Amino acid sequence: MFVLRYLITVVLINCTSLAFAQIPKHIFNENSGEEFSFKNFTSTTKTLKQRSGVYHFGESEGEWDLVVLSNNDSLIIQLWSGSWGKDHYTKKEAWLHSCTTFNTVTVNGNKFSFGKYSGQFAEYKEEKTSANTVLLFCDPIGERTYGKDSAELGFYSSPAATFFDNKEYYQLSLAVQPDTYFAGKTKQQLKIMRNTILAKYGLLFQAGGEMEKYFRKKEWYKPFKKEVGDCLTTIEQKNIATIIKLEQLLN
Fold first, then answer.
1. What is the dihedral of CA 92, 94, 97, 98, to 10 degrees?
2. Residue 208: phi, psi to the nearest 5?
3. CA–CA separation, 133 vs 122, rounded Å?
4. Which letter, b or e, does each residue of 91-125 get, where b requires 16 or more Cβ atoms within 10 Å of its Cβ?
5. Whole-prediction pTM
6. Is there a single domain that holds both residue 71 and residue 153?
7. Are residues 66 and 178 in the same domain?
8. Based on the domain organization, do 144 and 84 belong to the same domain?
9. 16 Cβ partners below 8 Å, 6+ apart?
């Protein structure tokens, strides 16, 4: 009986050590300076779809969001940050959101890499609090890598659908839509749908043109970029291609 209890104890200790061994020792919120014990984190296997959503980093003007989108058997990562600039129409100071998109994300177990950056999915538990998190081994906004065994913490804040739902046709950014999704749409409606994807990223349309007049009335539309092609996800690229195909059929 003593031997059995000893073996069970050893196994439990080894399992705990293995769980902790995957977690960086130094975990922090860079903006606030707050630090977290690595013992409150575990890293368990989940599906890519379960990992999708919005993870919030930083505070106040230093805050930004890492958006993880599930695309069949792969992931897409977007970094949404902001900075102060002049509103294109009012010329007053405004908070302008910008996005960097990584359509190629390599996933190895609970760890992932995008571009020259990398991170890890983990779960945080403390007393009655539990949350999905992302641990980043780098600062993709400041474009720098943290020291060995260090990571910045981002907490899961919302589903991607909630993040995008303040804009029309946000479903076009969440999943590749079949032709039936666009059934019954006029050529004009299709044109608006296609350009809504671009407007979301702050594209400047031709001054006085049809699309500029249309989107200028939208509260969420904050144009400041002449080109947004590099912001598009592969999901959005495929939906745009479908819309263009359907527009051509209506000629």
1. 50
2. 80, 0
3. 5
4. eeebebbbbebbbebeeeebbbbbeebbbbbbbbe
5. 0.87
6. yes
7. no
8. yes
9. none
